Amino acid sequence: MRRTAQAPAPAPAFEERSERDRLRTEFTFELPRGYVDESGTVHRAGVMRLATARDELVPLRDDRVRENAAYLSVVLIARVVTRLGTVDDIHPGIIEDLFASDLAFLQDFYRRINAEGHTRAAVTCPSCQEEFAVDLAGGRLGES
Predict the structure, then answer these.
(1) Type and span of the H or E element at 33
(2) CA atoms within 13 A on the CB side of 5
(3) How high is the pLDDT of residue 129?
(4) Average pLDDT in the 69-91 region?
(5) What is the distance between the alpha carbons of residues 133 and 15, in angstroms, rounded to a whole number?
(6) I need a labelling partner for 55 at 20 to 30 A (CA). Which of 21, 65, 81, 112 fits?
(7) Looking at the predicted structure, is the pLDDT value of residue 99 above 70?
(8) Cβ neighbours for 130, distance < 8 A, ≥ 6 positions apart
């Protein structure tokens, strides 16, 4: 009995990648209070992208950061927030004008997406003590 070798099936020219295989690089968020622009408009919804090594290194050369190490987070957040409401020219001056609670939110959000790889936070209900996860990228806490 003679066997003939069969050629392997050709690989598809383009394979679609599943959603699970794609790297998510942008994350939406909603600020607790919101950025108030010069006209009084409040901007709460925004987008933050994953940080690169350059994003973390470049601010270290900034004179404002050299003079005050606490300013590092302002410069860093300004580099990775790509949109805030209708504002898409995000710079340190805009981040400086945020309420302290919004800056704290963005610092935590940055840490979650860059270090932990997700936007979920473990919380405990103060009434029943049940533990569950909340996605910080969704709406503001306490709203549905």
Answers:
(1) strand 26-36
(2) 2
(3) 83
(4) 96
(5) 34
(6) 21
(7) yes
(8) 124
